[in-house]
């Protein structure tokens, strides 16, 4: 399993909101940029809103960042959209042969490594802000 595309779409949405601060950021307009259905955008913006990353007001078209882009990390976004659960980025196959010495012990040998790898990735995401991503978009 790879990381859900929700993470990339959420970063795209938030970058649009940062770059187009003065514009009307409707789900239809955002969907056009992302290349998906507005329903998908509304679902992800709902997750971002619940996490306190964006503000969306019912009955008023558009959304905006709830705090400065420099204060939003990619880890915040990753956690907001439930890209993967804790220690579940990497999975071990379900039914190794218990009669095989490797099958009996493979999970215990690799799960700690997978956990460290996921933590390293999350640490890397923590070190990058939305402002850094947005600054790479030509104006």
From TrEMBL:
It comes from the Bacteria. One of its GO terms (molecular function) is DNA-binding transcription factor activity. PROSITE patterns: HTH_RRF2_2 (PS51197). InterPro entries: Tscrpt_reg_Rrf2 (IPR000944), WH-like_DNA-bd_sf (IPR036388), WH_DNA-bd_sf (IPR036390). It holds the Pfam family Rrf2. This is BadM/Rrf2 family transcriptional regulator. GO terms for cellular component: cytosol.
